[in-house]
Specification:
single chain; about 600 residues; mainly beta; Immunoglobulin-like; five-stranded mixed sheet; rod-shaped; disordered N terminus
């Protein structure tokens, strides 16, 4: 009783001191400590300001409808204190009346392992009966750093009145009814050794070149209490998926308890694709014997534009073969008809994948065929039979024979058009035994077409001069007189003709007559084809003819004319001789003057 009376007397003295020191019974403004506190009832945030008005801390709290609005000064600190409804709080600081700063309540006094977890998880919301609930750490900070008489301003403001914002809430596992406050610095606190963690195991570290990349995808994190805080993970560094190589990102997370975790992941941007070969044409048609530039316009690269053109390997399969051979030259002469296969391949050095492309080159011979063995001009004998196909041949540039496809046409002398004597692929019998039945110039036309390109044709013409070079023939008519009378004038060419084998008649310039023998004492001469028989006896006349082309002479022919004296009267003989001479001259179409 004595101790109790002394405490009451001390309290009364303090009360009287305060009462006497404050005029008008008003509370004085104390300048206690280095901080003052603001409680935003609307947002459940406590902001700590230093004496210059600079915000330095923000605490999450829970107030209640009974929390008063106004300015107050702390007046008491209690390490553990009994609260309403037989519950207890740590680190209590009295604001005014029965309104305290204190931890979330406990179900057992002095037992830090009995905090209400459901109440703890309501921090940041209106949940108290008027007191200001805090985490143990925040309540202890006020308990330790804010001496009595620290100013407390309680407002019903908005988020704009919270310069440091609203802290993140710490959440405990509500499957447990009670437990330790995670922020309690008591070394017995099981949460003292727990920290947040970052899990990177679900993150794929191999990134395909050019692929989209999300640095946070697959990254998860938990706070010190095991709650998912993946959305709070930050990172440093970058990954350029357009450039092959290694990239390291550092991940960081800070939980509501202020504890941090870090992790780093090294990513590899890799080329997973085959190299790209460009410029290879799938199909080409080329001319026989042309040259193909195998590497012209062909290039190779990886997706990151690493050039591989010089590393392209080329193999060639020739027409009619199946085995592909490595071909190192830059040019390929297409010396065979058919289809060449050109195989291009290259290895991507980034992943050893092989890219292959094939080009099919169809080689054709479309040029004009070659015609050989045809003379531009020649001379043959009249009525001779010639093989017009002898020595004549045709072939493609590639060497394939087209001789059977040669067509032959002939235009005879003075003819206006050609007559075909051999069709392409037709019988060659006529052309092989063609008879030149006319003298003059024949035109022999040879033509052949490329079966792969009918517009590619070759035509050659041979001029054949047909001549009659054989010896002519002299023909003496059977009615030519072989007897005459002295004094007769004789026409030596009457009934005599000379012709070539071809039937061409020779003129008197190529047919001649010579008086070979005459009777002794005769002075007769052959003049202008006429002989005056001046004496009786035998007269021999020799005929000669010459081929004007070859100068070959005909076989000579000789006639003998027996001249006798006329027995009739001179008048009758002259009349008869004159009549015969006139008749002969009329037959030859020549008028002669009568011989007196």
């Amino acid at each position: 009783m004595k101790k109790k009376g002394m405490r009451m007397l001390f309290a009364l003295g303090v009360f009287l001191f305060i009462f006497l020191m404050v005029p008008g019974n008003k509370t004085s403004v104390y300048a206690a400590g280095n901080y003052y506190l603001q409680i935003n009832k609307a947002t459940n945030v406590v902001t700590v300001f230093d004496n210059s008005g600079k915000p330095v801390h923000a605490f999450l709290c829970s107030v209640g409808p009974a929390t008063p609005i106004g300015t107050f000064y702390t007046s008491e600190r209690l390490r553990w204190h009994t609260l309403y409804f037989e519950c207890y709080g740590q680190y209590c600081t009295r604001i005014t009346g029965d309104i305290l700063f204190h931890s979330v309540y406990y179900l057992q006094n002095g037992n830090p392992a009995t905090q209400s977890y459901s109440a703890f998880n309501r921090l940041g919301t209106m949940a108290s009966h008027g007191c200001v609930r805090l985490t143990v750490a925040d309540a202890k900070w006020i308990y330790d750093n804010c001496p009595l008489h620290t100013k407390v301003v309680i407002i019903n403001g908005s988020a704009a009145n919270d310069p440091l914002g609203k802290p993140a809430a710490i959440k405990v596992d509500e499957r447990k009814t009670m437990g330790w406050d995670p922020t309690d610095p008591d070394p017995r606190n099981p949460y003292a050794s727990t920290f947040p963690s970052i899990n990177t195991s679900a993150k794929t570290t191999s990134i395909r070149y050019g692929a989209s990349f999300s640095p946070l995808a697959g990254i998860s994190a938990k706070d010190s209490l095991g709650n998912d805080i993946s959305d709070q993970v930050t990172y440093k560094g970058s990954v350029n998926t357009k450039r092959l190589g290694s990239y390291t990102l550092s991940y960081y997370v800070r939980d509501a308890m202020g504890r941090t975790a870090e992790a780093s992941v090294t990513f590899q941007v890799v080329d997973t694709k085959k190299a790209i070969i460009s410029g290879v044409k799938k199909k080409l048609v080329k001319e026989y014997a042309s040259v193909l530039k195998l590497r012209a316009g062909v290039s190779a690269r990886t997706v990151d534009n690493t050039k591989l053109t010089k590393k392209i390997t080329i193999k060639v399969t020739y027409p009619g073969t199946k085995k592909a051979r490595v071909y190192k030259k830059k040019k390929l002469k297409l010396s065979k008809l058919g289809t060449y296969k050109i195989y291009y391949s290259v290895v991507n050095p980034h992943n050893q994948k092989v890219t292959k492309k094939t080009s099919r080159i169809t080689v054709k011979d479309t040029k004009n065929p070659k015609l050989t063995g045809i003379s531009s001009a020649k001379t043959v004998e009249y009525n001779s039979t010639q093989n017009l196909m002898s020595g004549v041949s045709a072939k493609l540039v590639s060497g394939k024979s087209l001789t059977k496809k040669i067509a032959v046409s002939v235009r005879e002398p003075q003819a206006s058009s050609f007559v075909q004597i051999k069709q392409a692929n037709g019988s060659a019998k006529i052309a092989q035994a063609y008879t030149f039945a006319k003298t003059g110039t024949y035109e022999i036309q040879y033509s052949v077409s490329n079966p792969s390109n009918t517009s590619a044709s070759t035509v050659k013409t041979m001029l054949v001069s047909v001549v009659d070079t054989k010896a002519p023939q002299i023909v003496i008519a059977g009615d030519k007189p072989s007897q005459a009378f002295v004094g007769d004038t004789y026409d030596v060419f009457y009934g005599v003709t000379a012709r070539l084998v071809s039937g061409t008649a020779l003129g008197t310039d190529k047919l001649s007559a010579v008086l070979l023998e005459k009777p002794s004492g005769s002075a007769a001469e052959l003049t202008d084809g006429q002989i005056l028989f001046d004496a009786a006896g035998e007269y021999k006349i020799v005929y000669r003819a010459v081929n004007p082309v070859s100068n070959l002479e005909a076989e000579q022919k000789t006639i003998t004319i027996v001249v006798v004296e006329r027995e009739e009267s001179p008048t009758e003989q002259e009349s008869e001789t004159e009549a015969v001479s006139t008749e002969r001259m009329t037959e030859q179409g020549t008028e002669y003057e009568e011989i007196p």
